[in-house]
Write a structure and sequence with these properties.
- The protein has 124 residues and is mostly beta strands.
- It is 0% helix and 48% strand.
- It contains no helices and 11 strands.
Length: 124
Amino acid sequence: QLQLVESGGGEVQPGGSLRLSCAASGFTLNYYAIGWFRQAPGKEREGVSCIASSSSSTDYADSVKGRFTISRDNGKNTVYLQMSSLKPEDTAVYYCAAEPLGTCGLAGRTYEYWGQGTQVTVSS
């Protein structure tokens, strides 16, 4: 069974940091591009960051550039999203997804496998 599981969410004060993890089971992540997406209540899903299968390219939404960093550890079959300088507007459910062609993109429609999401709340 192919599965993605996110973890690492929680509640943090503005300016704080969190590291999200996306672990795969049933398939090898290094053949896939991995994207992080988020959805806040009442808002559409937004692409946050992605990393190509070869790790040769990454992309970030303008709203998180300079604050978030995506990385992958193929040995652990896991992709991470390091989030720093968090703002209240970063509050959302964060999802990771796997794209089988290996191409990094923030649109979301080419991603085939999705995790169940992890809640991130930034509040004072």
